[in-house]
Amino acid sequence: MKRALVATLLLMLASYPAAAQNESSTRAYFGVQLQPGALVGAVEENGPAQAAGIAPGDLIISFDGKVIKSSDELLQAVAAGQIGKEVVIAVVRRGKEGMTTATLGQRLVLSGAALDEYRRKLDGILQELGSLGASTAWGRSELQKFSDLLGQFDELKKAAPPEEGVARNLWDRLDREFQVYKLLADNVRRQREAQRDQSPEAMIEEQLGPLYVDYMMLQVCAARFQEFEKARAGFREFLKNKQAAFPADATERLWNAVAVKFQKVESALDRTGAVQLYGACEQASKQAAALVTPVAAEQTSGPPLRRKDF
User: Fold this and answer.
1) Is the dihedral of CA 229, 264, 208, 275 positive or negative?
2) What single DSSP character describes residue 180?
3) Mean pLDDT, residues 177-197 taken together
4) What's the CA gap between 269 and 195, in Å, rounded?
5) What is the mean pLDDT of residues 61-78?
6) Closest listed residue to residue 186, CA positions, set 131, 125, 138, 132
7) How far is CA 91 from CA 96, 97, 126, in A?
């Protein structure tokens, strides 16, 4: 009985390796072949990589003669490089391998008091830029202030982009803000140049022409409705001060030209009913008051406006 039991156990142990060899198993499957390298997610504007033609989606597989198997290896290879050195880079783009060269730039590394001072300068420029306000009403002083701030930022940019997080965020935000404000400043300068190139007659017509039409409308209203006489008289004084800045012969020619065109308007007004005309007169009176009131407020706070008498 014991011999039979031992024999059975020996038979089972002897047959186990053979059974194990015949077993099979399954595992999850995805179906991709992984390629070593550093995948580019984004490219900094005006940086060495952009100048070399590197684009998002590129896979860098070699850098300065070193095989790159991961992003960490690329970062280590760049950090070990020399500033200003030209390096050869192997890149895979859309399945095709290519070569390019790049000149290594530099990144500013700050700490302690130097970092605090750098942050303070960047933040100060940002605050001053924001105080200008994005408005096409910029004058000479605003344009000069913008140029000064841009010059200060350009001086800081000569060193290198900062590596530290807060300073880098301030740097990037300033860079974006200056791009927007530069478009605004260029537009304001173009407008000022266009005004300088404009003929004197065109400037007079642009500033006085619409006002002459408004005054002629008030003349019609005062002639038909006595209550608009005060509005006409107030607007007349406003116009006298306004046109005093221009040559009398030029304003006379403009008045006559506008009066000829206004004849058609007046003919239409003569055929307008009293109710409709009164409504139009009320509107004209309000528009005139909106123009006259600010000037009247300025005159009460100081001496009367000087008039050209030569």
Assistant:
1) positive
2) H
3) 81
4) 35
5) 91
6) 138
7) 8, 6, 38
Pairing of strands 66-67, 86-93: unpaired
Nearest to 96, CA basis, from 71, 61, 68: 61
Widest pairwise Cα distance in the chain: 145
Q: Which residue has the higher pLDDT, 268 or 4?
A: 268
Question: Residue 208 has which token pair?
Answer: 């006085």
Q: Environment class of residue 168 by beta-carbon count within 10 Å: exposed (0-12), middle (13-18) or buried (19+)?
A: middle
pLDDT digit string (tens) for 94-131?
A: 989 999 999 998 776 777 888 888 888 889 998 888 88
Q: Output the pLDDT for position 195.
A: 66
pLDDT value of position 197:
62
> Cα 252 vs. chain centroid, distance in angstroms?
45
CB neighbour list of residue 168: distance below 8 Å, 6 or more residues apart: 161, 162
Q: Which two tokens stand for residue 43?
A: 């490219």
pTM of the predicted model as reported, rounded to 2 decimal places: 0.39
228 class by beta-carbon count within 10 Å (0-12 exposed, 13-18 middle, 19+ buried) = buried
- Among the listed residues 277, 268, 245, 256, the one whose alpha carbon sits nearest the alpha carbon of residue 212: 256
CA distance 62 to 37: 8
Q: Categorise residue 58: left if φ over 0, alpha if ψ from -120 to 50, beta otherwise.
A: beta
pLDDT of residue 3: 47
Q: Is the pLDDT assigned to residue 296 strictly greater than 70? A: no
The phi, psi pair for 96, rounded to 5°, reads -110, 135
User: Is the torsion defined by CA of 26, 27, 31, 33 positive or negative?
Assistant: negative
CA torsion 203-207-212-213 (nearest 10°) is 100
